[in-house]
Amino acid sequence: MLNKKPDLDLIFQALADPTRRAMLERLSQGPAAVSELARPFEMSLPAVVQHLQALEASGLVSSEKVGRVRTCRIERDALGAAEHWLHARRLSGEA
């Protein structure tokens, strides 16, 4: 993400889906090709791509295409923004 403030609504909307959370879990281990991310799911490749587009729109994932392979990676800054928001709410409840 290039100096763009993360949109928390889009982040939490993306995190609400178990398939997207599973994709993020895999990407937390390192970058992966779309075909690799699709492997564990019983869904079409276009459906997987739609999930990845939602993750990209939220800023949680970025991708780069080299040749015929699109590689995705987690964007830790966006994940950190959600974590920071949750942490601030938790602290405000302790006051």
UniProtKB/TrEMBL annotation:
Q: Record's SMART domains?
A: HTH_ARSR (SM00418)
Any one GO MF term held by the record is: DNA-binding transcription factor activity
Q: Which SUPFAM superfamilies match?
A: Winged helix' DNA-binding domain (SSF46785)
The residue range of the signal peptide is none
Q: Per its UniProt record, what InterPro entries does this chain match? A: ArsR-like_HTH, HTH_ArsR_DNA-bd_dom, WH-like_DNA-bd_sf, WH_DNA-bd_sf
Tell me the organism's taxonomic lineage: Bacteria, Pseudomonadati, Pseudomonadota, Alphaproteobacteria, Hyphomicrobiales
Q: Where is the HTH arsR-type domain?
A: 1-95
Recorded hits in PROSITE patterns, A to Z, give: HTH_ARSR_2 (PS50987)
Pfam families (alphabetical): HTH_20
- Please report the organism this UniProt entry assigns to the protein: Devosia elaeis
Its domain of life?
Bacteria
- Xref: CDD domains: HTH_ARSR
Q: Which Gene3D superfamilies match?
A: Winged helix-like DNA-binding domain superfamily/Winged helix DNA-binding domain
Protein name per Swiss-Prot or TrEMBL: Transcriptional regulator
